[in-house]
Design goal:
The protein is of the alpha+beta class and 244 residues long. 17% of the residues lie in helices and 26% in strands. The chain has 2 domains: 74 residues, Rubrerythrin, domain 2; 158 residues, Yope Regulator, Chain: A (2-Layer Sandwich), CATH 3.30.1460. A hairpin with a 3-residue loop joins β10 and β11.
Length: 244
């Protein structure tokens, strides 16, 4: 068993091969049993065996910003929902009218990883692309009735999510990025956009600037790039609209 020093504790805590740690910036939990799909860390990797370049997959905090979770905090977590989402929306795809889908696209749950006690990722289908939240730690989940809405604060800003449910998936909440999906020529392009959207969501550089900060404008090229990133993330890029 090794020891690592953590900011905010004032002393060293022992880190074992199964010790779970939580980012004190964004509350993301690193669980060795699950690894880290964002950094492609395989399940079974202890925290003290993470590569030196590893940072929090959600907010990029360094390892020193992670706190040991005690036994009282060891709430069981729900597994990665990607397989359930893939199966549910593949079944739904067989029922979609041909005129409403982009036949060049497949169904894929992209980039689902822990974020503040939830699973956060992007669902790509032939008829929509949505940000999705699903419960990971049940005590942190805010349930919504189907069709009800709530706003969620991300580093890139505040976004509106709609409650939904599928028998094989359970509760989830979604925020539309694109619908329909006609602008994508192939699935690889749609997957790349989904990955970039998730990254942009967690980047505070994409947040709207307050009025008093807009006087100090960047160079024209930089400003155009920042605006296009924000518009893209909000589903306005290439005509994004309401999704399922």
């Amino acid at each position: 068993m090794s020891t690592l020093a953590f900011q905010g504790f004032g002393h060293e805590r022992e880190i074992g091969p199964a010790t779970r740690l939580e980012c004190k910036i964004c509350w993301t939990v690193y669980d060795p049993a699950e690894g880290d799909p964002v950094w492609q860390i395989p399940a079974g990797t202890p925290f003290d065996r993470l590569p030196p370049h590893w940072t929090c997959p959600n907010c990029s905090a360094t390892r020193e910003q992670f706190m040991v979770l005690g036994d009282a905090d060891g709430e069981p977590t729900l597994p990665d929902p990607s397989p359930r989402l893939d199966a549910a929306f593949r079944a739904a795809a067989t029922r979609m009218p041909p005129g409403l889908v982009n036949v060049a696209l497949d169904v894929e749950a992209v980039g689902f990883a822990p974020w503040q006690g939830h699973w956060l990722g992007v669902m790509v289908t032939p008829w929509f692309m949505n940000l999705m939240l699903l419960p990971r730690a049940q005590s942190r989940w805010q349930s919504l009735r189907v069709g009800d809405k709530r706003t969620v604060q991300f580093p890139a800003g505040i976004y509106e999510f709609i409650g939904a449910s599928e028998p094989s998936v359970g509760e989830y909440q979604s925020c539309s990025l694109f619908s329909p999906m006609d602008q994508f020529e192939n699935h690889e392009a749609a997957r790349l956009v989904a990955q970039l959207a998730r990254q942009a969501l967690l980047d505070p550089a994409n947040a709207e600037q307050p009025e008093d900060a807009r006087d100090a404008r960047p160079a024209a090229g930089d400003e155009d790039e920042a605006i296009s990133k924000r518009d893209f993330l909000r589903g306005r890029f290439a005509g994004g609209g309401d999704g399922d």
